[in-house]
Structure formats: C-alpha cells, structure tokens
C-alpha cells in the first residue's frame, strides 16, 4: 500500500509541475515573424524578448470616441497588425486626469512602444519621461510639451494645421461677396494643440481684415460637443437676419456638425458652413439636398494613424526618425463629391487623398507579405 501511495503521489507531483510550467506561458499571442524588428529596435536587451512574443503597442488618445478618433485608431491598429504587432487602444474622452492615469498604467505593463495623441503641454513631458526611462519608444500626435521642447527620442507629428486653417478660411473669403467675410466662429480652447494652431491663422486673417468675427461659440466640455454647439448656435441665429452672416467656420468637424444641425433646424440656407476634418457622416451631410456644408479642409485620419505607426516601427528597428512631421492637408468641396463617395473612395475625387509612402520601408512590405496583409 505504501508503494502504491508513493507512486500516486509522484504522479500528482508530475501533473502539478506540468500545469505550473504552463501557467508561465499563457500569452494569447502567436509566434511573430517580426523578431528581427523587435531585437534590432528597442533599447531593451534583444535576448530578453521571447520568439513567441509579439511587439506590443499601446495607442492612447485624449479625445472622445468621435469619427476622427475611430478612423485614427483604425489606421494605427491595421498598420500595426500588418507588421505583426499587437496593438491595444485606449481613449480618455478628453479627461486629462484619466489620460495621464491611462498612460501611467500602460508604462507599468510590457509595451514596447506608445502612440500618444493629444497630450497637453502642462503635463506631457513629465507624463512620458518614465516611459522613455524604461526604453519605451514613443510617437506623439497633436501633443504639446513643456516650453515647446520635445523630449529627446520622441517624434512629434501633427496635421498641417496652418494649411488646414488657410485652406478653409480662403474658401470662406472666396465664397463671400463681403469684405471682410462675416463669420460665426466655432472653436474650443485654448489648450487643444491642433485648435490652438488653427487659431493662430484665424487671428492672422482677422488682423489682415479678411474676416470679421460676429460670434465665438464653443462647448463647455467635450461630453456632448455636437449637442451643445447646436443649442448655442440656434440660440443666437435670431440676432442675425438673412444676409447678415456669410459663413460659419467649424475649426473641428464635431463643432461643425453642431452648427449644421442648428442651421438646418432654423432653415437658414443663407449661411454657408466651411470646416476642418472629415468623416463619412460629414460627407453624408455635405451631400444632403440643398446642404449648406460647402467645403472642408482635412487630412485622412486613418492615414495619420498609419504614418504614426510606421514611424514607431522605425524607432523599434533602431532606424533614424525626425523630431517632427506634419501631414499634408487637402481641400474637399461639396461639388467634388458624388452619391457614391465615402472615406474609402474619397481618393477617387480628391487627388492624393489617403495616400502616402512616408516612412514606409521595404522591410515593412516584407513583413506585410509575411503576415498576409
């Protein structure tokens, strides 16, 4: 009996040992074909990365889950996955405290790289320094830093916001018979880097006498941008009889959608809407019968996410990257669109839309081929 008992205990011990060993390798990721990318890139020792591990990227954005955010995240995720990476996304709905908490939480995890979107100058430098100290590679989008100094090792990207503002405001001036053009301005800030940059150009146009601001309207928070802007625009329209306003300028398309709703509800066909940024919802509104949404200046938000991921991939591989990079802007007019136009087909009517080889490398194409992308 003693011998049988001893044999049974040995079997139990072996089974327990087997499960304990499995518990240390419960990763849900499969074998990656990007080990050369991982081992030649990060400052972490190459030998510390298992061949069973994928490179892990966190994309953290400090804005609501609007159309622009969804497309940006889709671009980053699809490009990262095409290179064999695991990409996780996080949004903080414009809550700066929550955003900083999200970043701090991911720093404590085993991420190799971050794409950080819409951090503010008062905290971004301190927020990201622990990640840099840990060897995490970082690319930021529309993020400001203390005293305007970008920390060493970070690439800071943006839309060409100055061109976006110029294209949209030039369109207002061109469409207006009055000089200066009389404008209801939709804006939110200060403290949102892209909107602050657009504001610089707006003030320049004001100073040059090209535009006259009748009203400045914006939301108090980012919780219900469209609803709040719609209510505020609707409340002031009665002050301005037909023909007394040339255009509404939406410095961000979420603001513009609120303005559009207010104009529709008030049946104000005499005021044109010109905006910045674009989405499928925007295109649909621009294509409605007798729509007053006449034009928008934009960069493909999906392409922004893709280009940010490519820059991060180069950092992970140890390749040289610039300190800053701006993505080119396009003007999209209502008359350019047709009934079949979507974000996916916009390139058919707007030359160059959504296309860029920026930071793409032959080794990335090889990885996409290996990953069936």
TrEMBL record:
Subcellular locations according to the entry: Cell envelope
GO cellular component: outer membrane-bounded periplasmic space
Keyword Transmembrane helix: no
Keywords linked to the UniProt accession: Signal
Region (Disordered): 26-49
One Pfam short name: Peripla_BP_4
GO molecular function, one term: carbohydrate binding
Biased composition (Low complexity): 26-42
All copies of domain Periplasmic binding protein, residue ranges: 57-320
InterPro entries named in the record: Bact_Solute-Bind_Prot2 (IPR050555), Peripla_BP_I (IPR028082), SBP_2_dom (IPR025997)
Signal peptide bounds: 1-20
Family note: Belongs to the bacterial solute-binding protein 2 family.
Entry protein name: Substrate-binding domain-containing protein
Phylogenetic classification of the source organism: Bacteria, Bacillati, Bacillota, Clostridia, Lachnospirales
């Amino acid at each position: 009996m003693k011998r049988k008992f001893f044999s049974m205990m040995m079997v139990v011990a072996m089974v327990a040992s087997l499960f304990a060993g499995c518990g240390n390798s419960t990763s849900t990721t499969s074998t990656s074909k990007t080990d050369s990318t991982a081992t030649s890139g990060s400052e972490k020792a190459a030998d510390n990365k298992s061949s069973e591990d994928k490179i892990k990227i966190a994309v953290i954005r400090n804005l609501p889950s609007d159309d622009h955010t969804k497309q940006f995240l889709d671009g980053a995720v699809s490009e990262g996955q095409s290179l064999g990476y695991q990409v996780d996304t996080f949004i903080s709905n414009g809550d700066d405290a929550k955003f900083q908490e999200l970043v701090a939480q991911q720093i404590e995890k085993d991420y190799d790289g971050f794409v950080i979107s819409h951090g503010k100058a008062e905290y971004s430098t301190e927020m990201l320094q622990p990640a840099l100290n840990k060897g995490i590679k970082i690319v930021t989008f529309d993020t400001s830093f203390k005293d305007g100094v970008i920390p060493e090792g970070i690439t800071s990207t943006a839309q060409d916001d100055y061109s976006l503002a110029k294209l949209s405001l030039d369109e207002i001036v061109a469409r207006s018979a009055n000089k200066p053009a009389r404008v209801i301005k939709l804006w939110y800030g200060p403290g949102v880097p892209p909107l602050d940059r657009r504001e610089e150009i707006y003030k320049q146009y004001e100073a040059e006498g090209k535009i006259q601001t009748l009203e400045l309207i914006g939301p108090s928070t980012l919780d219900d941008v469209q609803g709040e802007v719609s209510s505020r625009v609707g409340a002031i329209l009665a002050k301005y009889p037909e023909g007394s306003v040339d255009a509404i300028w939406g410095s961000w398309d979420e603001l513009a959608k609120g303005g559009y709703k207010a104009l529709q509800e008030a049946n104000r066909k005499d005021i044109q809407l010109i905006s910045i940024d674009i989405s499928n919802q925007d295109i649909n509104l621009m294509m409605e019968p007798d729509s007053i949404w006449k034009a928008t200046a934009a960069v493909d938000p999906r392409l922004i996410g893709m280009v940010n991921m490519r820059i991060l991939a180069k950092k992970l591989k140890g390749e040289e990257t610039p300190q800053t990079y701006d993505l080119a802007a396009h003007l999209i007019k209502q008359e350019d669109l047709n009934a079949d136009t979507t974000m996916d087909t916009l390139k058919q009517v707007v030359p160059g839309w959504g296309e860029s080889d920026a930071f793409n490398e032959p080794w990335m194409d090889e990885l996409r081929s290996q990953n069936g992308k």
